[in-house]
Design a protein that fits this description.
heterodimer, A: about 325 residues, alpha/beta, Rossmann fold, 2 domains, nine-stranded mixed beta sheet, five-stranded parallel beta sheet, 9 helices, B: about 260 residues, two-stranded antiparallel ribbon, 13 strands, about 30% strand, globular
Chain lengths: ~325, ~260
């Protein structure tokens, strides 16, 4: 009989990613519902010392697989180790963060375990003894409630959505020997991006620009910087070559759900609105009072972004000083 | 080099999506269909590899009969050589894993050195089929690729992760999935459209590819839709009035800071 909730954690260079705390906190909540235990698996090299950081968020057990072969994430080594652990422990539910690594890993693992996967899940609830997973489809145009008919069930949770909650518990830490197996796709090198840019899908604040910028993102970049947020762009801004592809917000780019989304000079094509409509607060700044973006916004300023944005920067700086 | 590209037909991203009467599916009547944009990037990359080092580009899809026309007019007209469409009522409404099982069964019947898939289809956004196909075939996967090169039976791919770029290498046969920035798909040209009319598309059933229908389709899906809903609509926008940009900005910053407390 499958029992318990198992969290697949994600760390990079010895630091857990934020979505891991979100996963563990959510896992604790579900484990309490199910009256079962919460286990977190930590994989990596030299990570034994960070494993107990998870206790704070309510784990009952932490499994540590510490091996030089796991220092960089590879689909194969991580899947091989996790599949063994899962088959031995038979959890009912597996929660993993749907980061880029988590998407890659959860999809491979689900296929290996012949299990159903709720990708980019935004909420989990118990409904008449059945776990129901909320997730968006069509880039956010549709909200789906889905159920999974397999053991285990896997939920890959969208970063930045679930609440981190500290519920310290006494916890058992267990070391597990690594079983790496064949690594079919291996890491040759990792090149870190220059600067400490905030990742779009993980940012609390996103400032985006569209056609109305005419390609001038200076003010938008400055506003994002003073707010500690990330810069995004509409499809037309990317198609014009004003921003890199990795900045594209929308149904065919990145789907974001920050606390605050500021759309500057973006008219609001359906596919763009789909990609940002889950943001908690939306501000639209546009010259055209009829722009569709205003229909999705909480606050709107009708005006020239080149006058409005610098004025906002000035006021935010004043606020921060 | 035998290259197979996995493709799906999806609703145009500019279309509104409406929920059908049954509450668990979407209305398809008025939808304009397109090839999944990430799959077009996959086809473009396949064509570039073929143009550089020779080979064949095969389109493989699971779907409705109407997908045949889309394969011909969009993808074969871009320059792909042939298509295989698995179209069978028993395959309908398979979940991501079911779809992967069908694709993997079809792939086991044909030669391949390289499989390219979109990172996700922009309808259900599952990010799953490519990886699952690689797993079912026991071959390496590299997902969300922004650059690739093939040398001496190996593929080397660049992949953007949060805050870094990772370079990965795998032996062929392998599967990779596409990310924006890998290339800009070409437009179809009239001569290519004419040529595409004569290119072969095999329509196959589940029996033809030798897969047990009990593994796939609606009834055997591990992921079931319980209900579909439209996102909650927001309260009407509050337009901030003022005599100047400075005045409006000051009101906005005060609201964001004191009222909704997001800055």
């Amino acid at each position: 009989m499958a029992e318990g909730v198992l969290i697949i954690t994600e760390q990079r260079e010895g630091a857990f990613r934020k979505v891991t705390y979100e996963s563990v906190s959510e896992g604790r909540r579900i484990a309490d519902y199910l009256k079962s235990s919460l286990t977190a698996v930590v994989l990596g090299s030299g990570i034994e010392k960070i494993a107990n950081e998870l206790e704070k968020y309510g784990t009952d057990n932490i499994l540590v697989v510490d091996d030089p072969s796991l220092s960089e994430y590879t689909t194969d080594a991580y899947t091989n180790n996790l599949a063994d652990i899962i088959i031995a422990r038979e959890p009912e539910l597996i929660i993993i963060g749907a980061s880029i690594q988590g998407k890659d890993l959860s999809a491979r693992l689900a296929a290996r375990l012949d299990a159903g996967l709720a990708m980019e899940c935004t909420a989990i609830r118990l409904d008449k003894n059945e776990l129901v997973y909320a997730r968006q489809m069509y880039g956010g145009k549709i909200q789906a409630d889905i159920t999974i008919n397999s053991t285990p069930q896997i939920a890959a949770i969208r970063p930045n959505v679930m609440t981190i909650l500290e519920t310290p518990k006494s916890c058992r830490i267990e070391k597990i020997a690594a079983k790496v197996g064949e690594i079919k796709a291996s890491v040759i090198e990792i090149n870190k991006d220059a600067g400490d840019k905030v990742e779009l899908t993980e940012a609390d604040i996103v400032v985006s620009g569209g056609r109305g910028t005419g390609g001038d993102f200076e003010a938008i970049e400055e506003l994002a910087a003073v707010l500690g947020g990330a810069v995004g762009g509409s499809r037309s801004a990317i198609d014009e070559g004003w921003r890199p592809h990795s900045d594209q917000v929308g149904q065919t780019g990145k789907i974001v759900s920050p606390n605050l989304y500021i759309a500057c000079g973006i008219s609001g094509a359906i596919q763009h609105l789909a990609g940002m409509s889950a943001s908690k607060q939306i501000v639209a700044i546009n010259k055209d009072p009829e722009a569709p973006i205003f229909s999705k916004a909480d606050f709107g300023i009708v005006g020239d972004l080149f006058e409005v944005v610098p004025a906002i920067i000035k006021d935010v700086k004043k606020l921060r000083s | 080099m035998e290259i197979v590209v996995l493709c799906k037909q999806v609703p145009d991203t500019e279309s509104l999506i409406q929920i059908a009467e049954d509450g668990v599916s979407v209305k398809t009547g008025s939808i304009k269909w397109i090839i999944n944009p990430y799959d077009e990037i996959a086809v473009e990359e396949a064509l570039r590899i073929k143009e550089a080092s020779g080979g064949t580009v095969t389109i493989l899809s699971v779907g409705h009969q109407r997908v045949e026309k889309a394969i011909r007019t969009s993808l074969l007209a871009m320059g792909a050589d042939k298509g295989i469409l698995i179209s069978d009522p028993l395959a309908e409404n398979s979940d991501a894993l079911g779809t992967a099982k069908i694709l993997a069964a079809a792939l086991k019947k044909i030669p391949y050195d390289l499989i390219i898939a979109g990172q996700r289809a922009v309808d259900q956004d599952n990010y799953q089929v490519g990886s699952a196909v690689a797993e079912l075939l026991g071959i390496p996967q590299i997902s969300q690729v922004i650059k690739e090169e093939i040398l001496d039976g190996k593929i080397r791919c660049h992949k953007a992760i949060e805050g870094a770029t990772v370079v990965l290498e795998a032996s062929l046969p392998a599967l990779f999935t596409t990310q924006r920035g890998l290339n800009e798909p070409r437009y179809t040209s009239l001569p290519q459209i004419m040529k595409a009319k004569k290119k072969p598309i095999d329509i196959k059933t589940l029996a033809d590819i030798g897969i047990d229908p009990e593994l796939v389709g609606d009834r055997n899906a591990k992921v079931k839709v319980k209900s579909l809903n439209l996102p909650q609509s927001r309260k009407a926008v509050k337009i901030i009035e003022g005599d100047s940009a400075q005045e409006k900005a000051a009101v906005l910053v005060k609201l964001l800071n004191e009222e909704v407390k997001v800055i």
